[in-house]
Amino acid sequence: MTFYSYAYLVDQNKTPNFIFIIATIILAIALLFTAYRYYKNRNDNKYRDLLIIFLFAMVLVVGINYNNYEKDLDVNNKTNQTIELMESIAKNKDVSAKKLYSNSSTLAEGMLIKNGKTIYRVSFDDNQNSYTLTKVGLVNKDDVKIQK
User: Fold this and answer.
1) Is 56's pLDDT higher than 90?
2) Where are the beta strands (DSSP E) in the chain?
3) Is the pLDDT of residue 104 over 70?
4) What total of structural domains would you count in the chain?
5) pTM higher than 0.85
6) Is 112:103 a contact under the CB 8 Å cutoff?
7) 90-126 exposure pattern, b = at least 16 Cβ within 10 A, e = fewer
8) pLDDT tens column, 65-101
9) How open is the CA angle 78-2-89, to the nearest 5 degrees?
10) Structural domain span for residue 142
């Protein structure tokens, strides 16, 4: 069982997708270059064909990137809910949020929060507006991994 630290969850929200950003920049440069070459040599159809290919590739990459962006926003919102829960627990237990660990990056019924050697099971109401902490024990404590 893996427990994620508060800092790890906060840092997860800041990770951009560099591969798609780099691909978009490269395609934009190629698109501009072929557009320039086509403008200079309008009789040469290979630049027009390349321009169309790069334009379609750019639309495809931007579409995929937008889809990934929407998914990342959803994951970030769910992770932010877990971060808010950890901050609330830290405030109620009068400990630093940096000393808390969660076994889930999203809010889920039955998720575990680790505070030092004490582990709590989190139960939510129907709207996930309130929670109850129940102290629990693990069967196999050697199986616990901490992701900082």
Assistant:
1) yes
2) 2-5, 100-102, 112-115, 118-124, 131-136, 145-147
3) yes
4) 1
5) no
6) yes
7) beebeeebeebbbbbbebeeebbbbbeeebbebebee
8) 888 888 888 888 888 888 888 888 888 888 888 888 8
9) 55
10) 2-147
